[in-house]
Design a protein that fits this description.
By secondary structure, this protein is an alpha/beta fold. It has 2 domains: 127 residues, Rossmann fold; 129 residues, 3-Layer(aba) Sandwich (Rossmann fold), CATH 3.40.50. Helix content is 42%, strand content 17%. It is built from 10 helices and 12 strands. Strand 1, helix 2 and strand 2 form a beta-alpha-beta unit. It starts with a helix and ends in a 5-residue tail after the last helix.
Length: 328
């Protein structure tokens, strides 16, 4: 019996000695010497034109830093579930940092928290997840931007008129802008909001709505868009009678300034599109390499208020930003 037990013990030693060791999954900071930092950027969608400039900003900053790779991925069309899946895939890959413009902040907050708990820093940009553990947010103060929009439309209409509002529900940035707009309109009873339309961040849906609302409401005198959908194409506002309907919209990327120069929009609110990419890249780099976090997690970029009076100057400024001559 003793011989049998001894034989079994020796067999166990031999088996365990030959058993291959389980390799731990590489985590953030466990790169090979000389390997580039991998920062994953996740915009809301690949079809929203403003994000193309964020990609340029991120890649320029990565080139400047020298050892950073930008991985750019997003749903082909607006799809909050798909965005969450992409975020989860980057977490599984153990990238070194993540920068995301949140389509639905409540949906991605658990995933952001998971990334942070695994040691992957997360920065939100454009659209925040304010209840998450993200390290920082970079973008405009959306509520105050909505207030600017509302104030300008009230002035354009001399405090009275019938308007429609185009927005997207669910995204934190657009929800805050809408709240800012409504906070102004509620103080001006002479302004009647006839409809609020959810275009689901789709400029083609906004185009169809504009065609319908201008026909069904000939009494319309004003339009506010919390996103740039009406000015993402030179022809979207063609159905609008600009002699009586005043248009206030977000975004100043081309062709929006030309739309304004043709008299189709009266106020445009510009964001720091290149900065959306450059600033989060720098923040992630400082966290990963220098262990340095922003002193304030909320970094407001400010906005550009573009009018028919200053649109030519803004076009000159845009051209310099696009060429990399100046940074914003």
């Amino acid at each position: 019996m003793k011989k049998i037990l001894l034989a079994l013990a020796l067999a166990g030693i031999i088996f365990n000695g030959c058993k291959p060791k389980e390799e731990a999954q590489p985590g953030p900071g466990s790169r090979q010497p000389g390997a580039k930092l991998r920062f994953a950027f996740i915009p809301k969608s690949l079809t929203i034109p403003v994000f193309a400039y964020a990609k340029i900003g991120a890649e320029r900053k990565a080139e400047q830093l020298g050892n950073v790779e930008i991985i750019w991925r997003a749903p082909d069309i607006i799809d909050a579930i798909k965005q969450k899946e992409i975020l989860e895939s980057f977490i599984a890959q153990r990238v070194d940092g993540i920068a995301i413009s949140c389509m639905n902040s409540a949906l991605v907050t658990p995933s952001i928290n998971k990334a942070v708990e695994m040691g992957i820093p997360v920065v939100t940009w454009d659209s925040d997840a304010p209840r998450s553990k993200r390290a920082a947010f970079y973008g405009v103060n959306d509520f105050e931007s909505g207030v600017i929009m509302g104030d300008n439309l009230v002035k354009l209409l001399d405090g009275k008129g019938k308007i429609t509002v185009i927005t997207t529900l669910g995204a934190d940035n657009l929800e805050q802008r809408l709240k800012g707009v409504m906070s102004v309109l509620q103080k001006n009873p002479g302004i009647e909001v006839m409809e609020t339309f959810d275009c689901k961040d789709d400029y083609l849906a906004a185009k169809q709505y504009i065609e319908i609302v201008t026909k069904s409401h000939p009494e319309l005198t004003g339009m506010i868009s919390t996103g740039g959908w009406p000015v993402f194409n030179e022809n979207i506002l063609n159905p609008v009678d600009t002699t009586r309907v005043k248009v206030v919209a977000f975004d100043t990327i081309p062709p929006a300034p030309d739309v304004m120069k043709k008299g189709k929009a009266q106020i445009l609110i510009g964001q720091k599109y290149f900065g959306w990419g450059a600033v989060p890249t720098q923040i992630l780099y400082d966290i990963v390499v220098n262990k340095k976090y922003p002193p304030d997690p909320i970094i407001y970029s400010g906005v550009d208020v573009v009018t028919p009076e200053n649109v030519d100057a803004y076009i000159q400024k845009w051209n310099k930003m696009a060429s990399g001559e100046i940074f914003e």
